[in-house]
Specification:
heterodimer; A: mainly beta; five-stranded antiparallel beta sheet; 60% strand; globular; B: mainly beta; seven-stranded mixed beta sheet; four-stranded antiparallel beta sheet
């Protein structure tokens, strides 16, 4: 069974800290992996997309890495800000471009001023 | 608990026809449902936010007359792709937020639309 797990479920840090969110998946035959941000009551916002052939992607203060062989991805957030407070979701697509998207349950991040 | 279903899971249609996709929350009531689509090699993108009993809110660049959303009950939202064209071929996925917990979102399995 293909599963996506995110650890920790919740994280609270003081402003300015660098932090890492973890995502693991059971089946390494992925097509791509995506990281999303979810604000309360809102739809998902796409942050980074990593194709299976890539090792990492960067956007501003965010860096996502992918290690297919170990079934892991990390989302690194540098110099965290209170505005980064949200739930971060990892989703893996299997089955090629016509496949299914499987989501982790997310990590709820709280950045305290 | 918290299961969201979508129907159909896959659909192939001819250009110019309309396709309706259903999103149901099976064991909870959802005031808000979201519709997303994902093109090959691109990220999942929010199309619209659907609130029960009111008009949907569409994201910039999404044609509301082409993608008709109806959220007539607390357990069902539908997305109708009108006059579908090959460029509408995509993966459409919905999610639902329980009325009791707006911060959570549960996702359907998605619908793969292919327009010939």
């Amino acid at each position: 069974k293909q599963e996506v797990t995110q650890i920790p479920a919740a994280l609270s840090v003081p402003e300015g800290e660098n932090l890492v969110l973890n995502c693991s998946f059971t089946d390494s035959a992925i097509y791509n992996l995506q990281w999303f941000r979810q604000d309360p009551g809102k739809g998902l916002t796409s942050l980074l997309l990593i194709q299976s052939s890539q090792r990492e992607q960067t956007s501003g203060r965010l860096n996502a890495s992918l290690d297919k062989s170990s079934g892991r991805s990390t989302l690194y957030i540098a110099a965290s800000q209170p505005g980064d407070s949200a739930t971060y979701l990892c989703a893996v697509m299997y089955g090629g471009s016509q496949g299914n998207l499987i989501f982790g349950k997310g990590t709820k991040l709280s950045v305290k001023p | 608990g918290a299961v969201v279903s979508q129907h159909p899971s896959r659909v192939i249609c001819k250009s110019g026809t309309s396709v309706k996709i259903e999103c149901r929350s099976l064991d909870f009531q959802a005031t808000t449902m979201f519709w997303y689509r994902q093109f090959p090699k691109q990220s999942l993108m929010l199309m619209a936010t659907s609130n029960e009993g009111s008009k949907a809110t569409y994201e910039q660049g999404v044609e509301k007359d082409k993608f008709l959303i109806n959220h007539a009950s607390l357990t069902l939202s539908t997305l109708t792709v009108t006059s579908a064209h090959p460029e509408d071929s995509s993966f459409y996925i919905c999610s639902a937020s329980p009325t009791s917990s707006h911060n959570e979102q549960f996702f359907g399995p998605g619908t793969r639309l292919t327009v010939l």
